[in-house]
Write a structure and sequence with these properties.
Helix content is 42%, strand content 10%. By secondary structure, the chain is mainly alpha-helical. The strands form 5 sheets. It has a two-stranded antiparallel ribbon. The protein has a two-stranded antiparallel sheet with strand order 3-4. A two-stranded antiparallel sheet has the order 5-6. The longest helix has 18 residues.
C-alpha cells in the first residue's frame, strides 16, 4: 500500500497544467481535491464519479476557497483533461460515455457533459487507494501543500465550519430564512446546474424520500432514490428551484401532476381530475387518492407554496 501511495503522490505532485496569463492553471488539483472530499463524505462509494450537483458544487466551493487569480472556474476542463495524466505511462482517469454517445473532445457545457458522460472513473488501484482514509489524507495534504500552500490553513478552517458556496446554494434551495441575508450566486450555467441538481436531491429528502401522495418509499444501496422532485410551477415558467415549489412524487404521479390529472388544494388535500378514466377496482387507482391529505415536510418552510398550488390548479389541472 505504501509503495502504491508513493507512486500516486508522485503523479499528483506533477500534474500537467496550462500556463495562462493569470499563471499556472489550478483546475486539476481542485477537481482531485473535490473528488477526495466526496469520498470522505460518503457521496462517492463506487468507482463511477458522476457529473452531478455534489461534484460541481464542491468544485466551485473549493475554487472559491483556494484560487485567488482570475482563472475561469470551468469544471468541465479538468474533468476531460485529467485523462492526459499518467502513472508509469498508463492513464489513471477515464470517461465513460452513455450508449450511443462519444467524448472525443472537451465538452465546455456542464449540462451537455452530464447528458453525454455517464461517469468518470479512476484506475482500479487508485480508487482502492482512495477508499483508504489515511491514503486520502496524505493525497489531500499533498495537493494542498504543492498547489495551494498559502490558502491551505483557511481552506481547512472553512471546511470545519461547513460554510461556503455549496452551503449557500443548499439553504437557498431549502428556502431557509438565513438565505435572505446571503448573496447567493446563480449567474453561470454551472450555478444553475448545481441549484437544479440540489432541488432534485433535496425535495425528496424533505419528504423523507416518500411519495407525498401515496407514502411509497424506495431507495437503494447505491444511493439511488426513486422518488421524483416535481416542480409545482414549471421551472421554464417560474425559474424557481426552491423546495416550496416542489413536491415529492413517485414517477407515475409526477407524470399525472404535470399533465393536470391530479393537483393539491390550499389545505393540502389531493385533487383528482374528473377526466380520469381507470379501473375503479384497481388497488392503485388515482381516484382512491381524492380528498386525502398529502404528506408534508416537517419544516413549514418546505411546505408547497399556496401561490404555486393556485397557479397549478388554474393553469394545469383539468378539474
Amino acid at each position: 500500500m505504501e509503495e502504491l501511495l508513493q507512486k500516486y503522490m508522485n503523479a499528483f505532485s506533477r500534474l500537467k497544467r496550462g500556463n495562462t496569463k493569470y499563471g499556472i492553471a489550478p483546475h486539476k488539483p481542485i477537481l482531485l481535491l473535490s473528488i477526495i472530499e466526496l469520498v470522505d463524505k460518503g457521496l462517492v462509494v463506487r468507482n463511477a464519479i458522476e457529473v452531478n450537483a455534489n461534484l460541481v458544487g464542491t468544485f466551485k466551493e473549493n475554487w472559491q476557497l483556494l484560487v485567488p487569480t482570475l482563472h475561469h472556474a470551468d469544471f468541465t476542463q479538468p474533468f476531460y483533461y485529467l485523462q492526459s495524466e499518467k502513472v508509469a505511462g498508463v492513464p489513471f482517469w477515464f470517461l465513460q460515455a452513455y450508449p450511443g454517445c462519444q467524448i472525443n473532445a472537451h465538452i465546455k457545457s456542464v449540462n451537455t457533459l452530464a447528458a453525454v458522460c455517464a461517469y468518470g472513473y479512476f484506475a482500479e488501484d487508485l480508487f482502492l487507494l482512495l477508499m483508504n482514509k489515511q491514503s486520502r489524507i496524505s493525497l489531500k495534504h499533498l495537493l494542498l501543500d504543492d498547489y495551494f500552500p498559502e490558502h491551505k490553513a483557511n481552506y481547512l478552517s472553512m471546511k470545519q465550519t461547513g460554510e461556503g458556496y455549496l452551503h449557500d446554494q443548499i439553504i437557498d434551495v431549502l428556502n431557509e430564512p438565513e438565505a435572505q441575508y446571503r448573496r447567493v450566486s446563480i449567474h453561470t450555467e454551472e450555478d444553475m446546474f448545481v441549484h437544479s441538481g440540489l432541488f432534485k436531491q433535496l425535495v425528496p429528502k424533505t419528504y423523507n424520500n416518500q411519495c407525498s401522495f401515496t407514502g411509497m418509499k424506495l431507495t437503494s444501496t447505491f444511493n439511488y432514490n426513486f422518488i421524483d422532485a416535481c416542480h409545482i410551477v414549471p421551472f421554464s415558467y417560474s425559474h424557481n428551484d426552491k423546495v416550496n415549489n416542489g413536491i415529492a412524487l413517485c414517477p407515475n404521479l409526477h407524470r399525472a401532476f404535470d399533465r393536470g390529472l391530479v393537483s393539491v388544494s390550499n389545505d393540502y388535500r389531493i385533487l383528482v381530475s374528473t377526466h380520469v378514466i381507470e379501473d375503479d377496482a384497481h388497488p392503485y387507482g388515482l381516484k382512491q387518492l381524492a380528498g386525502k391529505d398529502m404528506l408534508l415536510p416537517v419544516n413549514e418552510n418546505h411546505y408547497p407554496a399556496v401561490a404555486g398550488l393556485i397557479w397549478h390548479r388554474q393553469n394545469v389541472f383539468k378539474g
